[in-house]
Amino acid sequence: MAASLPDLLLTAEKAPADSARARGQAGWARSLRLWLPAGFLILLAAACFLWPQVYPVPKPVGGSVLNAGLPPLSPGHIFGTDPVGNDVFSRILYGGQVSFEVGFAVTAIGLAVGGSLGVTAGYWGGAVDAIISRVLDVLIAFPALVLALAIAEGLGPSELHVIWALSVFSIPATGRIARSATLALREQTFMLAARLSGTRGPRILLRHVIPNIVPQLMTFSLLGFGVVIILEGALSYLGLGIPLPEASWGSMIAQGQQTLTASPDLVLIPSAFLFATVMSLNLVGDALRERWAI
Amino acid sequence: MAAAEGLRPGAGTEFTRRAPGSPTLRLAGRRLLAAIPVLWGVTFLTYVVMNLLPGDTAQLLLGANATPAEIHQLSVELHLNEPFWVRYGNWLGGVFHGSLGTSLQNGENVTTILGARLPVTAELLLYAFVVSLVLAVGLAALVARWPHGIMDRLSLVISMMGLSVAPYVLALVLIYLFAVKVQWFPAIGYTSPSVSLVENIKSLTLPAIAIGLPLFAVYTRLLRADILEQLQREDYIVTARAKGVRPWPIVLRHALPNSMFGLITLVALNLGTLIGATVIIEPIFSLPGAGDILVQSINDHDVPVIEGIVVVFAVVVVVANLLADLLYAALDPRIRYGRVAS
Amino acid sequence: MWFGSTGRKRIRRICLGGSAVLLALTAAACSSASSSSSTSASTQASTGPHAGGSLTVFEWNGYSGDWPAGLDPATNINGAATQSQMDAVYGELFELGPNGAIVPDLATGYSITNGGKTVTLDIRQGVTFTDGTAFNATAVAWNIQRDLKSSCTCKPTWQVTSVTTPSPSTVQINLALPDGAFIDQIFDSIADWIASPTAVQKMGEKAFAVNPVGAGPFEVVSDTLSSVLVLKKNPGYWQKGRPYLDNLTFKTVGGDEAAYEAMLAGEGQVYEGMSTPSLIKQAASHFNVVNESPSTVYDLQLNTLTPPFNNAKARQAIYAATNIQPILSHIFANAYPIAQGFTGPGGICNEPTVPGYQGYDPTLAKTLVQQSGLGNVTIKLGTIQNPVAEETTEALQTEWASVGIHATIADYPLATLIAQFVSGKWQSMVQTAGAWDPAGGVGVGFRFESTSPFSGVHNTTLNNLLNQAQAVTGLSQRCALYNQAAAYIAKNYYGPFYFAYAPANVAVKNVVGPGITEPLPTVVVQPAILWEDVAYTS
User: Fold this and answer.
1) pTM, whole model, 2 decimals?
2) ipTM exceeding 0.85?
3) Are residues C454 and B186, on separate chains, in Cβ contact within 8 Å?
4) DSSP character for C105?
5) Which residues 245-284 in chain B show a CB within 8 A of chain A?
6) What pLDDT digit, counting tens, does each position of B236-266 carry?
7) Concatenated DSSP letters of A154-171
8) Is B161 at the interface with chain A, CB within 8 A?
9) Closest by alpha carbon to C92, among C534, C532, C538?
């Protein structure tokens, strides 16, 4: 759907041509490019997780039927209510929690598992590389959404199953980036020097390889985070993600879509948040790439 | 595949040592060999996942009024009681003979079902690819001609938006704007090309845009970055400019073709994610394609159909990757002539 | 420079990019709010039906737009749901007309004798299938026998001892048990659709299912399963001057909204079974919206075989915890009448209030919850994936929570739903019960008789009541027995009833016909539109 894997790496690589010119620009513009979207993300995450603790909002589920179908800017319901009476604003916040949780978990698993596999394959080469690469290839060849559907259908929809299913997508993706980055690193002079001076493998990995590939993995993961959020939305849209009536931006869009012409806000509001979040993640990823001149 | 992960053509991989003579063929051979375990792994994984799904198939088929005796008999007929490896072996054997099983819903051959549905999906994906590629290349050419100009800025904006939008949201907006408000395209449904080519193209346009916009975004970013880098760094371009060659020929004959490199591999690699996209887009537009029947089969628990479709998809992806690898290797003179690059 | 031009451009780029999309989306929203009523206020049916024209009908993919097994009556597992398509291709032996009149179509009459154990059908003479072969008693008998032998979950449940053809125009069906509701049951039985035996035998069952041959008003041009069915007028149809339409096409859509948008885009003229209240309201300003006569009741089934609902107090608590009126008025805009039994105003034996029915009483509910221990467990509350069912279920969950009953919701597609029932692991399900005749289709037996896997009740007294009500031939006797059954269900708190659902059919203003401009009683959830009488008026 959204960005594919090696592309991100390749694009990442080309940033220098652009940032050379960018360096000629005012520093504050560069800061803004990073901190505006980053700030938005931080604020949104804070709102989703902290606001309900600090300030009373109606519950996202169990809304009273007497409040069904209120339009936005109704008293007490700034975004209105859905056909069963749940407050939309509250569902946006709690749905945002789900998006951030799933995105974070899947990305973290991808980095941990995929990253380790990729680094191992890239550093040791040979048979180890061959085996790990084949495994990653198999996982990538599997259409991720299809696998996620099958898992969700078989095991039942739940946030945990969504995380598992999407990890099958993030592990090989991160793995391949980690592998390529490690390969590129392996040929560099300082690595040769480290090996010649007798440093042991694991120490090299820890002190030289990993710190140097972290920037690339980080920027890739930020873009991947956005993709995962969209995929979680897709699963919920199909009814195989977060189960109703719990809130998820994807299932809100699916529900709202059923009455699109009658009440478009039920689709527009979660779509806008989804779009803004993913866009901010992409912008932050780009800005970091530019900054670190990866 | 190795070539794609390589950052630049010829980057270090385990296949860096080359024997003299016919390196392309050797490369092709090696890639093919590597693809075989992947193919096997994919079919195996498909079968494992599908068979892990809970639910008594025989019971579902016979319905609520079935007696235990009837259920048992059907289980025997469908070989459902045999051990896992036996069933897998039977299924794999069937696949090699071109038989993907029969649908539990209506007894039709999965191959027949796929034969009817795959062309629709294939046409949709082709349309999406072509449109996004053509537009991306066109835009990239303009960007290359006037780097950092207006078109460049615009391309950055559009591609950022295209990357950030969810295809299902885009589809809904497209239907609302272009089918309901201004009736340029049909909101739902598919017209076969044999009935009317024009209507066929119209019925696939909105879905192709929904799938193609994120693609277009990715390609544009890639091409743009690649071209800009070439214009700045590549000696031959600097030389050409110094010699007074006009800008357009430089772009069209040198910069652009070289950028197509990375793009080609990308196209093949995207196939996997795109197939996932059709699962969402086809039902929204009521297109009778493979993605649509996959969703139906998952809802109906029609395991043979699910297996068949997933296997076909996965094999297509593997083959596409293989072809991209070979093409990449064939095009890159450094690999073809066996030069080792680090 | 701090305010370098490129810096400014970058900020503008970001802001512009984001807002451009938002603007487009908002523009879409604004234009929808001012719904343009473009159709002129022309009166319909003023000029009467015209012959000719092509009609496209939309069907929902979750029910009537799904025919994965083809359209052979003996193998179409979704026959009852796809009755529109089946009726168009095969016609019917008997049709259910306005006000519940039984309209002879391919059969001309019937008689029930021998204490309800013998049914004689008179078959219309001079009819041919579209392949030219004769439509006669032999063909009908062949079909009925084939239906009874089929392994389809859709096969008739009559206990038939023999099917004979005393003459080329009569078919006699002998039953083991008397059945006074036989003709009513035929409306949603596969026996109502007669396939050409020659065609079935010549083509083989698989090919026939995709290219069915019947004697109905239309014949098949092309059939893409669960997607598009293209039909054209049957030139040899028995009724002269019918069908009015030259072409009839059925198309599957994803839901009410998709159908509505497609109709607005001019891609179709009719949509069967719209249930979303806000869309119904919107549609009324552009199209004709007709509410069919409600006879299918939404109810809650409780599994009395397993805890917690094997405890009568727990079941009573559910009754007392449910307040259906606000759900009806706020979610469904009072479109459907309240029901306390399995009958509705559109069907026979309608009894809106049942004596002894436990109504809403939250104080009592709380007491019962404590006494039965219902508050200590979390209940599974399931339903099918459609908006009406899902919204009802969510609202119920909220209401119950306020008296201390905790439930988790699961929305299933049809196949998984069936699996849940069959496995016996369900606790409560929001479903529909009742049909035009409670003995027919997804009638009361389907939900409350112990032999049905979809029933949560296993009570011999109730079984006997329901069987008797079906066997008896006099209508008033039958209704009296059904009233007794409803009272018995209420007394034992076997399952609360909610409302009698009536789908709305939506059509463009220049199309008329029974079921489209004239409400019909619903057979199973939806009425059977009489396609041969559907026509354009201008």
Assistant:
1) 0.81
2) no
3) no
4) S
5) 262, 265-266, 269-270, 272-277, 279-280
6) 777 777 887 777 776 677 667 767 766 776 7
7) HH---HHHHHHHHHHHHH
8) yes
9) C532
